Each structure stands twice: as structure tokens, then as C-alpha cells.
Amino acid sequence: MRAFVLLAAFISSPCLAQDQIKLRCAGEQTSESAAGSEVRPYEKIYRIDLADNRWCEDACRAMHDIAEVHPVQITLEEKQTDSPSEQTLTRNFINRETGRHSILSTARYFGPVSLTVMLKWEGHCEPEPFDEFPEVQTKF
62-120: per-residue pLDDT in tens? Predict the structure, then answer.
């Protein structure tokens, strides 16, 4: 009986990281381009499985690999393109201590007319009970 109590205390310990996390993140999205800038509210729901190194967003129509997991930060996405026709950067991360959510997506296209676009999401995430990854029905 004592072993069971110790095991239950160990499993429920806040020091253990959860393998499956559902987060509701909300804040402001800012877009900037030659046409001007705009600020509007955003809300995203993330389902994250740290054990399987995968995550999805909102209706979970696509599964993604997690870029990096650290004790204080989960980097969901980090990619960069640098070619003669374009330069792009995307970073999406969540601070596990504060709940701060930040996405930066920039794109610069070169051609007869150059175009630069920057999108930035800044917000805060709150945990919700994990309710499994939704099953997507497909034709094939």
C-alpha cells in the first residue's frame, strides 16, 4: 500500500512533464507590408505530443514535427529559406514557464517588384484538458 501511495505521488508530481498538452493561445496578430499595417486578435488551439514529437493546430488537419523541446520552451516550428528569389523565416514557440506565445513569419520576394511581408503573433497560452488528436476522414 505504501508503494502505491509513493508511486501515485510521483506520477502526479508537478516536476514531471506532461507528454500530451492542449493549449489555447490568444493575443494579437500584427501584419506589416508596403500596403500598411494591421492589428487584430487571434486565437489558436494546439495539441502537442512530446513523446511522439508531433503537434497540430485548431482542427488538426495536418500533423507537424516539433522543432525543439527544452525545459523552458517548446519550439513548434523553425524554418528558413534563402534563395535568389526569396528569403523567408518562420518561428513559432511557447514559453513553458510564462505561457508566452510568439510566432514570427517574414517573407521577402525579389523580382520585377520586391515585396516584404511580416506577420507577428504575440499572446499567451493556457492549458486545457487534452482530448486526443481528432481523426481526419479522407477519401484515400
Answer: 999 999 999 999 999 999 999 988 999 999 999 999 999 999 999 999 887 789 999 99
Question: For the whole model, what pTM was predicted?
Answer: 0.80
User: CA 125 from chain center: how many Å?
Assistant: 10
Q: Which residues pair with 48 in a beta bridge?
A: 21, 55
Rounded CA-CA distance 120/90 in Å is: 10
Measured distance CA(107)–CA(9) in Å, rounded = 49
Which positions ≥6 away from 32 have C-beta within 8 Å?
117, 118, 119, 120
Secondary structure class of 11 (helix, strand, coil): helix
Strand-pair category, 73-82 with 86-95 = antiparallel
Residue count of the chain, please give it: 140
